């Protein structure tokens, strides 16, 4: 398997990407990495001692800054590491693409280069949230601010396949984020989505309130990107607050193994990257502050998505949903 890794995306690029790539190939003997970006900068981080037969470098002279307008930046920088990496994936020279660059640019370039699957109006970002009983995938976590009811159903289908194929849950439960458990709660769009989800062939279990997210109200939590991104940012800040507070209180004491494991579960680096679901390929988006460990884990997410044939399964699920008027 060959994975194209944007080497210019993190805040410490390409240092984090290079170290993460080396760690990934050392951990997976049947995996090769293509580092995409400024050849000279990458070479400076690689040094002389690295697995040369398993790490290639493809030069991409352009770079998209986090604050740039995604579409216009892609047009101005046709040889950006994001664009070149996705082209390698589209052409079959890489099985997946991973980037910690501008989320908007990765999303726009993925849609332009890989195209959306049939039956997908808008690709969605799926973000794993740690809960008291495993992980909940939130879709959408920021790709689409304003969504129609049938698009929320599409998100549910994409999230269901991801949790089945990558997380190994045989029949993922689907919940709709809302302000109450009753079907008539929420905005008109959310109420209409509830009706569509209830009539679909998905394992829809009803509305999930915000207080139930941490208690694993469902495996796939559906919402529009406006609400999902607010939830994500709050979750991230709360997790960081708890980790800092607990560690400071126990700094002079031995951390029980179970507590240390709990704290690691709140660390975004444990999850690595989040998938852009609904495009005709595997595109993984990472945090801009990703460490080498987070990059390694993101490569692992990409690998599992490819191994499970997630994209073809999503195409099949979407077709089945149309047949069932879901």
Give an overview in words.
With 326 residues, the protein is α/β, with parallel strands linked by helices. The protein folds into 2 domains: 1-120 and 278-308, Isopropylmalate Dehydrogenase (3-Layer(aba) Sandwich); 121-271, Isopropylmalate Dehydrogenase (3-Layer(aba) Sandwich), CATH 3.40.718. Helix content is 44%, strand content 17%. It contains 11 helices and 11 strands. An 11-stranded mixed sheet has the order 3-2-1-4-11-10-5-6-9-7-8, with helices on both faces. The longest helix has 25 residues, at 225-249.
Choose one word for the global shape. Answer: globular
Structural class: alpha/beta
Give me the number of helical elements: 11
Name the CATH superfamily classification of the largest domain.
Isopropylmalate Dehydrogenase
Q: The CATH topology of the largest domain, please? A: Isopropylmalate Dehydrogenase
Mean pLDDT: 89
Give the distance, in angstroms, between the N- and C-terminal Cα atoms.
35 Å
Largest sheet: 11 strands, mixed
Characteristics:
Isopropylmalate Dehydrogenase, 2 domains, single chain, alpha/beta, globular, 326 residues, 11-stranded mixed β-sheet
């Amino acid at each position: 398997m060959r994975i194209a890794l944007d080497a210019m995306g993190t805040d410490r690029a390409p240092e984090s990407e290079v170290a993460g790539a080396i760690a990934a190939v050392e951990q997976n003997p049947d995996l090769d990495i293509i580092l995409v970006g400024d050849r000279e900068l990458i070479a400076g981080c690689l040094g002389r001692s690295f697995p040369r037969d398993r790490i290639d470098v493809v030069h991409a002279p352009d770079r998209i800054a986090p604050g740039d307008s995604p579409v216009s930046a892609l047009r101005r920088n046709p040889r950006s590491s994001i664009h070149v990496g996705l082209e390698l994936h589209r052409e079959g020279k890489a099985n997946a693409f991973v980037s910690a660059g501008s989320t908007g640019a990765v999303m726009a370039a993925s849609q332009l280069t890989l195209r959306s699957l049939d039956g997908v109006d808008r690709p969605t970002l799926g973000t794993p949230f740690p809960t008291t009983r495993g992980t909940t995938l939130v879709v959408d976590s920021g790709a689409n601010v304003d969504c129609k009811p049938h698009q929320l159903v599409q998100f549910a289908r994409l999230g269901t396949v991801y949790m089945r194929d990558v997380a190994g849950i045989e029949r993922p439960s689907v919940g709709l984020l809302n302000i109450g458990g009753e079907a008539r709660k929420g905005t008109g769009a959310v109420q209409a989505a509830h009706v569509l989800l209830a009539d679909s062939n998905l394992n829809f279990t009803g509305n999930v309130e915000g207080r139930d997210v941490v208690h694993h109200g469902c495996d796939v939590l559906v919402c529009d990107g406006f609400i999902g991104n607010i939830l994500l940012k709050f979750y991230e800040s709360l997790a960081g607050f708890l980790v800092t507070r607990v560690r400071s209180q126990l700094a002079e004491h031995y951390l029980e193994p179970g507590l240390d494991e709990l704290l690691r579960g709140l660390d975004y680096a444990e999850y690595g990257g989040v998938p852009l679901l609904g495009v005709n390929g595997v595109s993984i988006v990472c945090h801009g502050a990703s460490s080498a460990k987070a990059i390694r884990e993101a490569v692992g997410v990409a690998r599992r998505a490819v191994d499970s044939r997630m994209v073809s399964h999503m195409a099949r699920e979407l077709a089945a949903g149309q047949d069932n008027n879901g």
